[in-house]
Every structure is written in C-alpha cells, then in structure tokens.
Design a protein that fits this description.
This protein has 178 residues and is mostly beta strands. The chain contains no helices and 16 strands.
Length: 178
C-alpha cells in the first residue's frame, strides 16, 4: 500500500525490476494466468468490472462488467471463470460461473454448482469444475462437467474419515493434492 492506493506490480524472480503496472485509486489482482501472460484484476471504483492486463504489452481490456467473483484462469490459460449473480427458482441470488474466452466473445461454458459446493477450482481438462461438498461428511471432491445443468456431479475422491479442506490439481492434471 502506498499513498496512491493498492496497485498491481511486477518484479523479476530475483527481486529486481519492480514496476507498477496499474494506475488509479486502487486495483486488486484477482488471478494470474498459468502461462504468466495475463493478470485479471478489479478496480476499486468499479468492483463488478473485471479487466485483463497483458503483462508483456501493458494492454488492458475488459472481460466482464457484472462480475460477483473470479475463480481463475483455466489450466490452458484460454478462459477466465467469472461469477455472475442470478436468481434461482426460489428467487435467491446464486452465483453462476461463466467461462469467458480470453480472445473475446460470449461465455463458452456455464456452471451451476449445487448449494453445497465450496472451494471450487477448474478441473485439469479446462472443461469442468471440481469442488468440495459440504453435504459429504469427509468433504470429498466432486466434479461437474461443462454444461451439466442437470444430474449429479461425479464423486472424485472417496475418503471416509477426517475432512478435506482444499484441493489442487498438478499442472498436467495427473495428480491431485488434498
């Protein structure tokens, strides 16, 4: 934090080359793409707007204007998962996760997670979400495929004691850390 607010900064791995990348009353990083080329961020003066910063060129573009959250970039860095509030059948606000293509255009995939889902992350295939399930005593991991608006999510892990508190996929999608 400095006098002009919080901003997005960049530096080299050895700590040299520190430079400020964003300007304004304050900006908050929401996600960094796995390939290291893009940063998704929000400006304090427009908190529902998500912008992308190309780190090599400094070009900033808008990817969403009505976001309620960001889950991050897909493993292949081609999409950003943006949450948008929508009323459910009972009139309650629920987050619908939409996959926004980095190249631009309309959302390509939509995920409607069950109310018991939390700690959701992209699946390693860039076409699914995995999440912990509050209704499962061990908080096992479940997977929801893209476009699966009906049916039950598939169970990924089958622990029967203790509780999972988080999960992370390896970059190649072959391993799961819990």
């Amino acid at each position: 934090l400095e006098e002009s607010g919080v901003h997005v900064w960049r530096m080299e791995l050895d700590g040299t080359g520190l430079r400020q990348l964003t300007q304004g009353s304050g900006e908050q990083r929401a996600a960094l793409s796995p390939d290291g080329r893009l940063v998704a961020f929000e400006r304090w003066e427009s908190p529902r707007k998500i912008e992308l910063l190309a780190l090599e060129t400094g070009v900033i573009s808008t990817i969403a204007t009505d976001a309620s959250g960001v889950l991050g970039f897909s493993p292949d860095s081609s999409q950003l998962l943006v949450g948008q509030l929508q009323a459910d059948e009972r009139g309650l606000a629920r987050t619908v996760w939409r996959s926004m293509p980095i190249a631009g255009g309309a959302p390509t995939v939509e995920f409607r997670l069950p109310p018991s889902a939390f700690r959701q992350v992209w699946g390693p295939d860039s076409r699914s979400l995995t999440f912990l399930n509050r209704n499962d005593p061990a908080r096992n991991i479940y997977r929801l495929a893209a476009g699966a608006s009906t049916g039950e999510p598939a169970q990924v892990t089958r622990f029967d004691k203790d509780r999972l508190t988080g999960h992370w996929w390896s970059p190649d999608g072959t391993r799961l850390a819990v």
